[in-house]
Amino acid sequence: METKDTLSSCSDLNEQEIQQLQKQEKILKENSLNKFNALKTTTQHLERQTFTNSPLFQHVFSHLFHTDIRTFKYELSQNMNNLEKQLNNEIPHEKDSKSALSLIKVQFDKFIHLEMLKSSNYDSNAREARQDFKDYTPMEAQSFNDLIIQHMESIEKCIIERARHEQELSDRLE
Q1: Residues 9-36 pLDDT 10s
Q2: To 5 degrees, how large is the angle CA 39–CA 42–CA 45?
Q3: Cα separation values, 167 from 10, 97, 99, 174, Å
Q4: Are 80 and 41 a contacting pair, CB within 8 Å?
């Protein structure tokens, strides 16, 4: 009888551990979606309709992002939808999620590495571009840049953590 009780308590303990891991998975998923929503909120600064009516900012935008506004907004919308879909999956696929995030990183890559965004750059064209960016997006270009980087890094960490956690849960279920 004692062996049966021991097996039963081991089984109960294993079941509790699995339930705890499933609760943690739900929390990790919510966390990754919260990080995604923070990125989405930040990128919405680039979605003002007045951009398309302002030839001056269209020129500045294409100089900063190396593409026109409409193309950028369309591609960003597609890429954000794809990333959100990946993060919403019940079973996360690390490779697919990282790939979706990577497409967004590529869109912002040239902007992130621009020397003209640095406030230490006193070139008149750089100052004007930074001021135009602020006028049209209500954000300093460098602050926007820093936020984009921060959000993408936190999403990547969430993706990695969810994948690690999913592997641990999978190992327990086997």
Answers
A1: 556 667 787 788 788 888 989 999 999 9
A2: 145
A3: 21, 15, 19, 11
A4: no
